[in-house]
Write a structure and sequence with these properties.
It is built from 15 helices and 14 strands. The protein has helices at 26-30, 49-53, 60-64, 68-76, 115-120, 160-170, 200-211, 243-260, 274-284, 305-311, 332-343, 357-366, 377-388, 394-408, 418-425, and strands spanning 10-13, 16-19, 131-138, 144-145, 153-156, 175-180, 216-221, 234-235, 241-242, 264-267, 291-298, 347-351, 371-375, 412-415. The strands form three sheets. It has an eight-stranded parallel barrel, surrounded by nine helices. The chain has a two-stranded antiparallel ribbon with strand order 1-2. A two-stranded antiparallel sheet has the order 8-9. α13 packs antiparallel against α14. The protein binds ligand PBG. The site of ligand PBG has 11 residues, from α10.
Length: 430
């Protein structure tokens, strides 16, 4: 029975039921005992002629045979009805050592014995509603494959993107986040294209909202796709990233996105004080209903490599270590958490995901706010590469990695696997 080898994760989206079904592995099959443990016990009672002939009582019970009293009387008289015999003890393979059983009263394996028990006691579940699909867009008509991210494309904003969103919605993934590839000619040192109301992102948001009014659109708030320096902020001539001046630009960017119809603006820049400033700017323009998902703990990580290739957004010089966090730091995440909470963030994000599970758990335990995890490009590409090389089972590793992010405390997960995982949860195979 394949169910023994399934990782069951039932979940609901509205009235639709989803169950995570992963390919059974040969190992799990080997672990199955050869004898069925859960035999159905059937009590068979032969109907007596007497019962049928007796016309003194009527109703459904009479038609089935003996009355309860007659059955009890038969058993009391020693006339026990037939039932399947006690099943024989399953035989161990020849050579199995004969030992007396361990004197332990706690055997956790009892609760893992069957797929039904495992599903009943499963502590974490995942559904397509937990996923946010990051999508790369560009001005072109065609979709361009991204070399370092197999299966990902820079999508034409007018066609490819709209089709991809439709596919995601089909499997219950109704949240996306947009990342633009901006033409070099529009990049400047102050990134002003970021708040052009007719720029690629605002235009795309308007198109998507027109087609899918209930689609939830997250946007990235940071200057790097628009910066000729490839940094998230304005760079002074001595290389310093200017904090408050950058925040001024980010506020204008967030307002432009909100004006176009964004539901959640997501500052990923790591400047100080940007959440409070963006909140004030949104409110001043009448966008009280627009949420802020703050990249609270964003680390200066090498796992972003494929993403920067996708957007051609590598810093032209230096690195991002004066604003993104040191991967060696844990307590520092609490400093960022306190700032973002007090400045009014609605959702707190940790990035990258899998190497930073401890940070996800930290924020989950320290804050009542929803937590997001970003399974970044490098994490995605490693799983893809391992799958292509047949070193790992891509689909199982994908689903396990997402489940682990949930277990660590993430409510939502930004992942390039969103569509593939959504299909998997719907039982679709493609
Ligand atoms: C930049 C930004 C980055 C990512 C999302 N927003 C890269 C960076 O900080 O250089 C990375 C996402 C990924 O690697 O998947 N604002």
């Amino acid at each position: 029975m394949a169910s023994a080898a399934m990782l069951n994760a039932p979940c609901n989206i509205g009235a639709v039921k989803f169950e995570v079904k992963l390919k059974p592995s040969p190992n799990l099959f080997c672990a199955r005992p050869s004898v069925k443990l859960n035999r159905r016990r059937v009590l068979t009672i032969r109907a007596s002629k007497e019962g049928h002939d007796n016309g003194s009582s009527s109703g459904p019970l009479r038609k089935m045979g003996l009355t309860d009293e007659e059955c009890e009387a038969a058993v009391v008289a020693g006339n026990v009805p037939e039932a399947p015999p006690v099943p024989p003890k399953p035989v161990a393979p020849a050579g199995t050592p004969l030992v007396s059983s361990l004197p332990i009263n706690r055997r956790p394996r009892r609760n893992r014995r069957s797929s039904v028990a495992r599903a009943a006691f499963q502590e974490t579940n995942i559904s397509p509603a937990n996923l946010v699909y990051p999508l790369f867009i560009h001005e072109g008509e065609e979709d361009t494959p991204i070399g370092a991210m197999p299966g990902c494309y820079r999508l034409g904003w007018r066609h490819g993107l709209v089709e991809e969103v439709a596919k995601a919605r089909d499997v219950g993934v109704n949240s996306i986040v947009l990342f633009p590839k901006v033409p070099d000619a529009l990049k400047t040192s102050t990134g002003d294209e970021a708040y052009n109301d007719n720029g690629l992102v605002p235009r795309t948001i308007r198109l998507l909202k027109d087609k899918y009014p209930d689609l939830v659109i997250y946007t990235d708030v940071a200057l790097d796709p628009y910066s000729s320096d490839g940094h998230d902020g304005i760079v002074r001539e001595d290389g310093v990233i200017m904090n408050d001046e950058t925040v001024h630009q980010l506020c204008k960017q967030a307002v432009a996105q909100a004006r176009a119809g964004a539901d959640v603006v997501s500052p990923s820049d790591m400047m100080d004080g940007r959440v409070g400033a963006i909140r004030a700017a949104l409110d001043a323009e009448g966008f009280q209903h627009v949420s802020i998902m703050s990249y609270t703990a964003k680390y200066a990580s090498s796992f972003y490599g494929p993403f920067r290739e996708a957007l051609d957004s590598n810093p032209r010089f230096g690195d991002k270590k004066t604003y993104q966090m040191n991967p060696a730091n844990y307590r520092e995440a609490l400093v960022e958490l306190q700032a973002d909470e007090s400045e009014g963030a609605d959702i707190l994000l940790v990035k990258p995901g899998l190497p930073y599970l401890d940070i996800i758990r930290l924020l989950r335990d320290k804050s009542p706010l929803p937590i997001a995890a970003y399974q970044v490009s490098g994490e995605y590409s490693m799983i893809k590469a391992g799958g292509v090389l047949k070193m790992i089972d891509e689909e199982r590793v994908m689903m396990e990695s997402l489940m682990c992010l949930r277990r660590a405390g993430a409510d939502i997960i930004l992942t390039y696997f969103a569509l593939q995982a959504g299909r998997c949860m719907c039982g679709e195979k493609r």
